[in-house]
Amino acid sequence: MSSALTRRGAAVLLAAAGCLGLFAAQARATELFVTNEIDDTVTVLNGQNYKVIATIPTDQRPRGIVATPDHKYVLVCDGDSSNIDVIDVKTLKVVRRIDTGPDPETLAMSPSGDKVYVSNENNALVTVINFATGKWITQVPVGIEPEGLAVTRHGHTVVVVSETTSMAHFIDTKTWKVVANVLVDTRPRIAEFTPDQHWLWVSSEVGGTVSVINPRTHKIVHIIYFHIPGVDREYIGPVGVRFTTDGRLAFVALGRANRVAVINAKTYRVEKYILVGQRPWQMMFSPHRRRLFVVNGLTNDVTIIDVSSLQPVRSVPVGRLPWGIAVIP
Description:
Layout: H1 3-27, E1 31-36, E2 41-46, E3 52-57, E4 62-67, E5 73-78, E6 83-88, E7 93-99, E8 104-109, E9 115-120, E10 125-130, E11 136-141, E12 146-151, E13 157-162, E14 167-172, E15 177-183, E16 188-193, E17 200-204, E18 209-214, E19 219-225, E20 241-243, E21 249-253, E22 259-264, E23 270-275, E24 280-285, E25 291-296, E26 301-306, E27 311-317, E28 322-328
Antiparallel strand pairs: 1-2, 1-28, 2-3, 4-5, 5-6, 6-7, 8-9, 9-10, 10-11, 12-13, 13-14, 14-15, 16-17, 17-18, 18-19, 20-21, 21-22, 22-23, 24-25, 25-26, 26-27
């Protein structure tokens, strides 16, 4: 065999290997991780065809979920087991567990990925954990039944909302002290900073409103109300909040109203209500924010919304009582 033919054959093999590698990379390009509170599992969906890739067993009552900044791990709060499951994104297996203290509800990470912040609902605490070692750094007393957490881009401030106290608590991460308490509407669930970090939005499930807070003055500058024809106000329970990259639009999941509100984030005007599954709870964007994934707790599925048209594309089944979602690009 001539050397030219040998070189040509080698080139063909290398090209084929490259195509296979590219195909494999594309196959795992985007994945959705959804916690199923009743099943004690995490459903992993392919972000392109939305088929189930894996069902990962967890400890008891998985709820809050977040990806590490490097996208190597997904962390899941196990409320009835008082720990965090750490899932390896490559192997799709739980590789370690971190003690959190009683009843972890939700969690967030520092921008550098070195610290985990956990809201302990039963103990009215935020537990701060070293992610590498799993050891506790400190615990910060806050209001009763803390839940949603938000961290500023620079990591200097952590905000947690307390459901029963109806407050947003601002924690200084240098001193681990609460520096401000902002009274909001009844039963706040989620805190979310706008992309420019100028405002903090807090959803109140029972109050049926979203409070817009100036994080520098700790004052409420606006309250957003919702009115859906034919839907009683008691069914309108804002929970999840997400913003488009440019900060122009906000999406708010409205719980038992079975809708996601689309809000002009500059004028605070509700532009549209998108019908989804029953009791939409948490939401997350695709990596390029062209799709919004909405977790519907009572229909056990995820609704995919096309962000450009503001239309639901389809709903895909997951486990029972899905709660939270993380997206790995």
